[in-house]
Amino acid sequence: MNRRHHRPWLAGVALAGALIAGAAQGYTLEEFTFEDPAQFEDFRDLISELRCLVCQNESLAGSQAGVAQDLREEVYTMMREGQSREEVVDFLVARYGDFVLYDPPIKPSTYVLWFGPFVLIGGAGLLLWRAIRRKKAEPEQDLSPDERARLQQLIASRDTQRD
Amino acid sequence: MKGSKTRALIPLGIFLALAALLFYGLQLDPRKVPSPLIGKPVPAFELTSLKDPQQRLDRELLLGEVSLVNVWASWCPSCRQEHGELLRIAREHDVRVIGFNWKDERASALLMLRQYGDPYTVSLYDPDNKAGIDWGVYGAPETFVVDPEGIIRHKQIGPITPEVWEEEIRPIVEQYRARNS
């Protein structure tokens, strides 16, 4: 009857499998050679931070798409020519837009994206703080003197009625 | 008493605003990445004509009248899908359609034009994505609307359907054509 509870470890195996598959990227960059290994590292880091526009959940480093290969070659050529990382990024952004960057730049059109969450958290915190403070300041709604008198009157009248 | 009633409506208001925002987000197609080239002059290029390898073409070609620059390839099924619409636009509307044959082979590109008809005044030939990168092309079909001064005014990503033509491209074409005459 209780078959559903038999193999809790299966979920763990599935999760581990998913994570390992995510870590393995099926693309070799062997064709791109640099004299300086550090430069190759820079190249690999850079193309890992650029998004492939065709298959948008892949980086330029991991994508098999034809356009991604063209852009890898372009980035490779530019870096071999000694152009800096900024120059390569500016080159691509000028043509494909900020979308090629996984990290959107901070500018007026992305302020909401970068600061929105903090504004929301701050606003919610402020409301919470105000609510708590109000609760503390006026713990219970006290009766006004008029209401108090009326209450006494009611109690008294009930007592007399019972007698 | 009235004040607290209004306050109780605030969360509902926030919810509706958020729902509207997310619903709007659902309508957007993340595959359509806006081009940073809108409003800018077409990038300089030097390509040959698809039909005549001796004929050199550059951005001068795009000056003087409104053009649709249509990125296409024979390997691209959506290009074939929009091909009929391009033929119709070139025939029925006074607009120049210029081909941008992209990452293709000359022979198969020419074969496709023979089989399905040729809507293009002329077709640029860019087999190894030399000019394509400068134009920010990342797929086919894509279509740029270029005004008579050679400024890119619009980019359509994906096939041109009759609706896309009527609603998105035609108004822009007519706007810049009117300004020119």
From TrEMBL, chain A:
<keyword id="KW-0472">Membrane</keyword>
<keyword id="KW-0732">Signal</keyword>
<comment type="similarity">
    <text>Belongs to the CcmH/CycL/Ccl2/NrfF family.</text>
</comment>
<keyword id="KW-0408">Iron</keyword>
<dbReference type="InterPro" id="IPR038297">
    <property type="entry name" value="CcmH/CycL/NrfF/Ccl2_sf"/>
</dbReference>
<feature type="domain" description="CcmH/CycL/Ccl2/NrfF N-terminal">
    <location>
        <begin position="20"/>
        <end position="154"/>
    </location>
</feature>
<dbReference type="InterPro" id="IPR051263">
    <property type="entry name" value="C-type_cytochrome_biogenesis"/>
</dbReference>
<protein>
    <recommendedName>
        <fullName>Cytochrome c-type biogenesis protein</fullName>
    </recommendedName>
</protein>
<keyword id="KW-0479">Metal-binding</keyword>
<keyword id="KW-1133">Transmembrane helix</keyword>
<feature type="transmembrane region" description="Helical">
    <location>
        <begin position="111"/>
        <end position="129"/>
    </location>
</feature>
<dbReference type="Pfam" id="PF03918">
    <property type="entry name" value="CcmH"/>
</dbReference>
<keyword id="KW-0349">Heme</keyword>
<keyword id="KW-0812">Transmembrane</keyword>
<feature type="signal peptide">
    <location>
        <begin position="1"/>
        <end position="23"/>
    </location>
</feature>
<keyword id="KW-0201">Cytochrome c-type biogenesis</keyword>
<comment type="function">
    <text>Possible subunit of a heme lyase.</text>
</comment>
<dbReference type="InterPro" id="IPR005616">
    <property type="entry name" value="CcmH/CycL/Ccl2/NrfF_N"/>
</dbReference>
From TrEMBL, chain B:
<comment type="similarity">
    <text>Belongs to the thioredoxin family. DsbE subfamily.</text>
</comment>
<protein>
    <submittedName>
        <fullName>DsbE family thiol:disulfide interchange protein</fullName>
    </submittedName>
</protein>
<dbReference type="InterPro" id="IPR004799">
    <property type="entry name" value="Periplasmic_diS_OxRdtase_DsbE"/>
</dbReference>
<dbReference type="InterPro" id="IPR013766">
    <property type="entry name" value="Thioredoxin_domain"/>
</dbReference>
<dbReference type="InterPro" id="IPR050553">
    <property type="entry name" value="Thioredoxin_ResA/DsbE_sf"/>
</dbReference>
<feature type="domain" description="Thioredoxin">
    <location>
        <begin position="36"/>
        <end position="178"/>
    </location>
</feature>
<keyword id="KW-1015">Disulfide bond</keyword>
<dbReference type="InterPro" id="IPR017937">
    <property type="entry name" value="Thioredoxin_CS"/>
</dbReference>
<keyword id="KW-0676">Redox-active center</keyword>
<dbReference type="InterPro" id="IPR036249">
    <property type="entry name" value="Thioredoxin-like_sf"/>
</dbReference>
<dbReference type="InterPro" id="IPR013740">
    <property type="entry name" value="Redoxin"/>
</dbReference>
<dbReference type="Pfam" id="PF08534">
    <property type="entry name" value="Redoxin"/>
</dbReference>
<keyword id="KW-0201">Cytochrome c-type biogenesis</keyword>
